[in-house]
């Protein structure tokens, strides 16, 4: 007599006597593979982590890890603050995906022949690998404009290429700038008031480290004066092979020496059964499972749905992996605001977080983000995992170096003329300047040096965008230029001298400034040359012929001067009379 039985997959018994119990009996306990997303290479992929709550549009800086990828500003929305206005964005976004709070939005339009396209960008947690197939998934919602649109993913090998396009609002898509490639693009028709799933696959040809997501390069098909607007949420990028099954979550209780495994919060099965090494753990049917950290083996959860089931990926219990958490502190400046934060990163979720500054405990609440604007010093963060079980990190912060703009007046002497300039510096040699006089822009003046005229006076200012796309300004009041003579010349001739026995007024002298040399020739009343010499090389006339021998007779003598200007080398001629009075 023969009997046949079917394996029951959740009772820990080999029901069909084939030597295989529960999940190990793959013939009888097989589940279809329900797709669930892997961990994204994109940090803060659902925009839930925030540095601040947005209060208006153009505040993507409030979303942790994300930057305004274009000068045309995309928007961050969060139910803790700003969620948009129908006046600007048409329909407001549906409830954020997976019951979250944050999401973003962008315009895709044009004005005349100028493209106005807004993008979001971020550095990846890990570089893409050349030649591997990747998958991009995200959700898109309609705001206003056409419902048939195209979206594209762009990437760069250098994260410092974010943002792209400099100060050009109308540069269009990233490939109009250097260092950017389009990885993939798709055209779709959106359903209103829903989050529309978009899925694309691509194979990178470089090891890209940063991405930009938004409208494609093509001109959108819109009605005149229309401002097409769309919302984005839940951006997942990873290798295609990882989009299958689901991974268990884990939370390690170090001091209790146990780990809590769980299923992803977004999953909502009808029933759950936990397994160790493929055998059902009796009574473990909740969404979490507490495991002794010393217990080795493979843990899995089997989920039952209305018309299907699925089994998690194998999760290996490993006391070496469930070890000491890593805690690290870093400081961060909010773009263009001067606001500074300390952020505590950790590998395992703590029970409590405490902050200390210069040895004193701070009352800031249980948070891993601490505002420290203008507060330099030594900070300690302590993460508590249980009684007498804490891990910490220390950081000392100094004043944060930010870009600044300084302008000053330069007075340069060219020949015998004053030349006046305004000069500016930001520390970035590629800065593009905009100069203003009394609040009016000076067209075509984009260099860091501005030449002034002799009549230039008033309030001058310069405006420059920093490498972080922050507006820098400085101003200076320019008054009337100097009116002093930069090349003064003068001389004085004494028309009487009394050579003789004493030392007073015994030599005929010439006082002068601004002349490199003076040729002096002295004649008597009959036109005979008495003495010729050159200043400053030779001595002045002592009243004798060629400055030797006996004194010349008293009387009036005639001189001729040839003066050489030290600035221009120009020679001028002057003549006059000298009266010699001998004291003999």
Keywords for this entry:
584 residues, single chain, five-stranded antiparallel β-sheet, mainly beta, 43% strand, Immunoglobulin-like, 40 strands, Jelly Rolls, six-stranded antiparallel β-sheet
For the record, the count of structural domains works out to 5
- Helix count, per DSSP? 1
Largest sheet descriptor: 6 strands, antiparallel
At CATH level 3, the topology of the largest domain is Jelly Rolls
Mean pLDDT: 84
Q: What is the multimeric organization of the chains shown?
A: single chain
Distance N terminus to C terminus? 166 Å
Rg of Cα set: 42 Å
Question: Helical residue percent?
Answer: under 10%
By CATH, the architecture of the largest domain is named Sandwich
- Which class do the helix and strand fractions yield? mainly beta
What's the CATH first level of the largest domain? Answer: Mainly Beta
Percentage of residues in strands: 35-45%
Number of strands: 40
**Poorly predicted regions:** 32-36
Shape: elongated
């Amino acid at each position: 007599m023969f009997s046949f039985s079917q394996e029951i997959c959740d009772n820990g018994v080999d029901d069909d006597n084939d030597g295989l119990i529960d999940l190990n009996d793959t013939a009888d306990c097989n589940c279809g593979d329900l797709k669930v997303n892997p961990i994204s290479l994109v940090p803060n992929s659902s925009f839930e982590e925030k540095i601040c709550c947005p209060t208006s549009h153009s505040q993507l800086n409030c979303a942790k890890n994300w930057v305004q990828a274009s000068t045309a500003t995309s928007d961050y929305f969060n139910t803790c603050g700003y969620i948009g206005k129908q006046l600007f964005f048409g329909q407001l976004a549906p409830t954020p995906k997976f019951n979250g709070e944050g999401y973003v939005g962008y315009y895709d339009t044009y004005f005349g022949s100028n493209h106005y396209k807004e993008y979001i960008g971020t550095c990846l947690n890990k570089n893409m690998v050349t030649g591997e197939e990747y998958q991009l998934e995200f959700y898109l919602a309609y705001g206003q404009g056409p419902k048939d649109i195209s979206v594209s993913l762009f990437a760069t090998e250098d994260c410092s290429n974010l943002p792209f396009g400099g100060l050009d609002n109308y540069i269009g898509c990233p490939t109009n700038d250097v260092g950017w490639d389009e990885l993939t693009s798709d055209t779709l028709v959106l359903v209103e008031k829903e989050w529309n799933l978009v899925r694309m696959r691509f194979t990178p040809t470089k090891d890209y480290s940063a991405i930009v997501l938004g409208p494609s390069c093509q001109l959108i098909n819109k009605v005149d004066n229309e401002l097409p607007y769309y919302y984005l949420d839940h951006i997942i990028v990873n290798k295609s092979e990882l989009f299958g099954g689901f991974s268990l979550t884990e939370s390690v209780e170090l001091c209790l020496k146990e780990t809590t495994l769980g299923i992803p919060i977004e999953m909502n099965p009808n029933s759950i059964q936990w397994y160790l090494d493929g055998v059902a753990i009796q009574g473990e049917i909740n969404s979490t499972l507490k495991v002794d950290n010393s217990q080795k083996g493979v843990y899995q959860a089997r989920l039952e749905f209305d018309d299907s089931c699925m089994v998690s990926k194998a999760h290996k219990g490993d006391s070496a992996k469930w070890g000491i958490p890593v805690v690290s502190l870093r400081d961060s400046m909010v773009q263009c605001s001067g606001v500074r934060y300390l952020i505590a990163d950790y590998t395992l979720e703590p029970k409590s977080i405490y902050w200390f500054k210069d040895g004193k405990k701070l009352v800031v609440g249980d948070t891993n983000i601490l505002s420290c604007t203008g507060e330099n010093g030594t900070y300690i963060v302590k993460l508590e995992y249980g009684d007498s079980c804490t891990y910490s990190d220390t950081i000392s912060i100094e004043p944060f170096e930010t870009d600044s703009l300084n302008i000053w007046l330069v007075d340069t002497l060219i020949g015998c003329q004053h030349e006046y300039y305004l000069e500016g510096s930001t520390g970035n040699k590629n800065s593009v300047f905009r100069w203003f006089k009394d609040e009016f822009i000076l067209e075509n003046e984009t260099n860091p040096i501005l030449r002034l005229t002799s009549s230039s006076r008033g309030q001058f200012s310069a405006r420059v965008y920093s490498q972080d796309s922050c507006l820098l300004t400085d101003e200076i009041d320019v008054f009337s230029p100097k009116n002093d003579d930069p090349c003064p010349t003068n001389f004085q001739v004494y028309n009487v001298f009394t050579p003789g026995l004493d030392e007073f007024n015994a030599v005929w002298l010439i006082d002068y400034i601004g002349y490199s040399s003076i040729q002096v020739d002295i004649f008597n009343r009959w036109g005979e040359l008495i003495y010729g010499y050159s200043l400053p090389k030779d001595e002045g006339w002592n009243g004798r012929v060629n400055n030797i021998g006996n004194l010349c007779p008293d009387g009036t003598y005639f001189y001729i001067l040839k003066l050489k200007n030290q600035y221009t080398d120009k020679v001028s001629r002057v003549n006059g009379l000298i009266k010699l009075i001998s004291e003999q």
